[in-house]
């Protein structure tokens, strides 16, 4: 990529600011919901320990906790 095309790309993108899929105002509520869902799903998995419950409770709980933790970190102002 030449520097001239990079300069043209830079100037073309100046009129299109970045807008995230989830706005800053919604991050806390989404994070809270995901962490609550992770807590509930992991509690259900803890009450019903079985291999058949892993895809039903454990996997969604781990995804909800992972994404919820990142959203909560961003919502309270700690950027990773």
UniProtKB/TrEMBL annotation:
Keyword field contains 4Fe-4S: no
Matches recorded under Pfam families: Ost5
GO BP annotation list: protein N-linked glycosylation
Keywords, alphabetical: Membrane, Transmembrane, Transmembrane helix
Gene Ontology cellular component terms for the protein in this record: oligosaccharyltransferase complex
Subunit structure: Component of the oligosaccharyltransferase (OST) complex.
Official protein name in the record: Dolichyl-diphosphooligosaccharide-protein glycosyltransferase subunit OST5
């Amino acid at each position: 990529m030449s520097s001239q095309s990079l300069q043209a790309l830079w100037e073309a993108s100046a009129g299109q600011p970045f807008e995230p899929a989830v706005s800053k105002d919604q991050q806390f509520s989404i994070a809270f919901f995901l962490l609550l869902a992770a807590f509930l799903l992991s509690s259900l998995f803890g009450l019903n320990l079985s291999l058949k419950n892993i895809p039903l409770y454990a996997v969604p709980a781990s995804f909800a906790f992972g994404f919820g933790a990142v959203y909560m970190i961003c919502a309270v102002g700690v950027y990773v």
